[in-house]
């Protein structure tokens, strides 16, 4: 501990508290700003990615809506063809051919042909052509097999070249076939057949091309439920083996956005299933597209961080100066007082807590000086006891160490702990002064002890635990002030100081008949019977630490006020701990009692006097 104090003293000589605070503030602030910037960047990146995913979903929804509308129109044509033209009409009727032509003419922009076959594969009628190729067996084609015998079911094929009819212009039409089972009537007899509507593939191609008008690397394609590609902007490259697509694996994915590693890059893949068909529209956004959009964002964040860091450094200089300067001035005043000047110029200023501490300290110094003058007029025994009590009121070394602790807390940016220490120290001073009174309430005495222990726990880094259990019925009783704190100080220095995290101190207050008892118990080293017997004797040779206020002084001060039957009772066992019991008369606090007990009459109460007041 001594080496650590010397090291910190040398450090303070080379680095002022202002510089230390500024450096600490700056390092922590820069770290926090860097962490904040990285966090915000990741949040922004995730948001951008989410927006791209949302845009992809919206694009697919719109494309799916357009495609579903187109397919729905094809279904409507098929329904019209079946229910209005074929069903309940004789195949030999001339009206059937005429109505098929009318229906085709009304939708020829999206259609290549309409044909009707029997379940054996024989052509019934077709528009706009009727010449079927000789080598065609429709019963072997997928669209026929999927539709025959399955009433009310629609089947959409993948893109293929229409190869059923001869074309006078030798043109090849890419189509998607919509096939369904139908009921045919011929000469009053019914039989099953297949209705075929060949949709122009270019119409679907145009719908999907509208969705691929953005960046080349970002594209949308269409496939069936088995993963076979229906449309792809790079379809020719895929067929030529120059480009690969992960369509077979993606076919098993659910609708929504997914991340995948394909080839040598990361991609955001969004899937949308098209109604009626089981087809899937897939949006692919490579990570390189996202990175291109994030370049300016990265640059913006870097510039913002640099400007923020420079501003933080400037602000930290101002803050560190305003925080450290008042504490340094107040610390110099305490050092002057510690050096022996009983009339120091106490600094008052700075933050509210520091200013309050300065005012309280100045008032305390003045009160101490006045009490030291008054104590010369008291009898020798009382003068000796009261002088020790005043020494325990505000011990400059305790105050100096406490202020040093506050300074370290501020250097370590433990501001809440520093404010807590200052407020506890200020409260300690207020109760210590008590407007010059010697008699105070038990409640105030316990509060004073609590403030003292709160400060000591922080100074000792919570190496011991303390527990207060005070009955409410004794809180308004009279007590000599500053009698619990010296016992707690002894419990720390003689009992639990060397016990790491195992030290326990208990403070219990209760009424015992006509008496008030306050016990201070610890689980420390205890003491031998020889030392125990000499504690409450005059001129005992027990070594002292801490503020130097011995239990004999507390014992005598209680007896001076309340008589010989009151004072301290001590019990101790080596390695078991020590218990010190304060015994006081049960006297409720009031202005009259205060005047009587606090020296407004010349005769001090001796043994039995307190009983008379009760």
UniProtKB/TrEMBL annotation:
<keyword id="KW-0597">Phosphoprotein</keyword>
<feature type="transmembrane region" description="Helical">
    <location>
        <begin position="20"/>
        <end position="44"/>
    </location>
</feature>
<dbReference type="InterPro" id="IPR003594">
    <property type="entry name" value="HATPase_dom"/>
</dbReference>
<dbReference type="Pfam" id="PF02743">
    <property type="entry name" value="dCache_1"/>
</dbReference>
<protein>
    <recommendedName>
        <fullName>histidine kinase</fullName>
        <ecNumber>2.7.13.3</ecNumber>
    </recommendedName>
</protein>
<dbReference type="Pfam" id="PF02518">
    <property type="entry name" value="HATPase_c"/>
</dbReference>
<keyword id="KW-0812">Transmembrane</keyword>
<dbReference type="GO" id="GO:0004673">
    <property type="term" value="F:protein histidine kinase activity"/>
</dbReference>
<feature type="domain" description="Histidine kinase">
    <location>
        <begin position="483"/>
        <end position="588"/>
    </location>
</feature>
<dbReference type="InterPro" id="IPR004358">
    <property type="entry name" value="Sig_transdc_His_kin-like_C"/>
</dbReference>
<dbReference type="InterPro" id="IPR036890">
    <property type="entry name" value="HATPase_C_sf"/>
</dbReference>
<dbReference type="InterPro" id="IPR050640">
    <property type="entry name" value="Bact_2-comp_sensor_kinase"/>
</dbReference>
<feature type="transmembrane region" description="Helical">
    <location>
        <begin position="299"/>
        <end position="319"/>
    </location>
</feature>
<keyword id="KW-0418">Kinase</keyword>
<keyword id="KW-0472">Membrane</keyword>
<dbReference type="Pfam" id="PF06580">
    <property type="entry name" value="His_kinase"/>
</dbReference>
<feature type="domain" description="HAMP">
    <location>
        <begin position="321"/>
        <end position="373"/>
    </location>
</feature>
<keyword id="KW-0808">Transferase</keyword>
<dbReference type="InterPro" id="IPR010559">
    <property type="entry name" value="Sig_transdc_His_kin_internal"/>
</dbReference>
<dbReference type="InterPro" id="IPR003660">
    <property type="entry name" value="HAMP_dom"/>
</dbReference>
<keyword id="KW-0902">Two-component regulatory system</keyword>
<dbReference type="InterPro" id="IPR033479">
    <property type="entry name" value="dCache_1"/>
</dbReference>
<dbReference type="InterPro" id="IPR005467">
    <property type="entry name" value="His_kinase_dom"/>
</dbReference>
<keyword id="KW-1133">Transmembrane helix</keyword>
<keyword id="KW-1003">Cell membrane</keyword>
């Amino acid at each position: 501990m001594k080496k650590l104090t010397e090291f910190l003293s040398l450090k303070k000589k080379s680095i002022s508290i202002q510089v230390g605070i500024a450096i600490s503030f700056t390092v922590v602030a820069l770290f926090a700003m860097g962490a904040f910037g990285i966090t915000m960047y990741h949040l922004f990146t995730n948001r951008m990615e989410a927006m791209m995913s949302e845009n992809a979903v919206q694009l697919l929804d719109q494309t799916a809506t357009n495609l579903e509308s187109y397919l729905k129109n094809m279904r409507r044509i098929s329904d019209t063809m079946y229910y209005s033209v074929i069903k309940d009409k004789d195949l030999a009727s001339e009206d059937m051919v005429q109505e098929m032509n009318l229906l085709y003419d009304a939708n020829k922009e999206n259609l290549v042909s309409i044909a009707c076959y029997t379940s054996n594969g024989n052509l019934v009628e077709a528009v706009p052509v009727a010449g079927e190729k000789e080598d065609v067996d429709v019963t072997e084609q997928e669209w026929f097999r999927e539709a025959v015998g399955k009433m009310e079911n629609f089947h959409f094929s993948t893109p293929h070249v229409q190869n059923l009819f001869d074309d006078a212009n030798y043109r090849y039409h890419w189509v998607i076939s919509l096939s369904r089972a139908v009921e045919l009537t011929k000469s009053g007899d019914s039989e099953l057949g297949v209705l075929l509507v060949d949709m122009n593939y270019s119409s679907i191609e145009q719908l999907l091309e509208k969705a691929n008008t953005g960046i080349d690397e970002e594209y949308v394609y269409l496939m069936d439920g088995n993963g076979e590609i229906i449309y792809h902007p790079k379809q020719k490259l895929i067929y030529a083996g120059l480009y690969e697509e992960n369509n077979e694996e993606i076919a098993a994915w659910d609708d929504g956005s997914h991340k995948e590693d394909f080839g040598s890059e990361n991609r955001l893949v969004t899937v949308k299933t098209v109604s009626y068909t089981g087809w899937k529209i897939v949006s692919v956004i490579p990570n390189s597209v996202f990175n291109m959009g994030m370049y300016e964002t990265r640059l913006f964040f870097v510039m913002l961080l640099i400007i923020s860091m420079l501003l933080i450094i400037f602000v930290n200089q101002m803050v560190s100066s305003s925080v450290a300067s008042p504490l340094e001035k107040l610390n110099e005043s305490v050092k002057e007082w510690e050096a022996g000047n009983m009339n120091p110029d106490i600094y008052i200023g700075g933050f509210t807590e520091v200013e309050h501490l300065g005012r309280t300290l100045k008032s305390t110094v003045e009160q101490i000086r006045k009490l030291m003058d008054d104590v010369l007029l008291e009898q020798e025994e009382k003068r000796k006891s009261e002088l020790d009590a005043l020494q325990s009121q505000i011990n400059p070394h305790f105050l100096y160490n406490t202020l040093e602790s506050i300074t370290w807390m501020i250097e370590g940016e433990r501001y809440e702990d520093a404010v807590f220490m200052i407020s506890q120290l200020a409260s300690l001073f207020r109760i210590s002064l008590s407007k010059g009174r010697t008699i105070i309430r038990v409640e105030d005495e316990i509060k004073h002890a609590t403030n003292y222990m709160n400060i000591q726990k922080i100074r000792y880094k919570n190496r011991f635990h303390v527990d207060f259990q005070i009955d409410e019925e004794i809180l308004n009783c009279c007590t000599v002030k500053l009698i619990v704190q010296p016992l707690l100080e002894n419990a720390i220095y003689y009992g639990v100081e060397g016990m790491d995290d195992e030290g326990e101190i208990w403070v219990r207050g209760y009424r015992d008949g006509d008496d008030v008892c306050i016990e201070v118990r610890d689980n420390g080293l205890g003491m031998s019977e020889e030392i125990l017997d000499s504690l409450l004797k005059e001129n005992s040779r027990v070594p002292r630490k801490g503020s130097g206020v011995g239990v004999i002084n507390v014992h005598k001060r209680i007896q001076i006020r309340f008589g010989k039957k009151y004072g301290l009772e001590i019990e101790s066992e080596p390695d078991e701990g020590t218990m010190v019991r304060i015994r006081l008369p049960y006297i409720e606090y009031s202005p009259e009692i205060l005047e009587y007990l606090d020296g407004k009459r010349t005769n001090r109460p001796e043994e039995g006097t307190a009983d008379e007041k009760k």
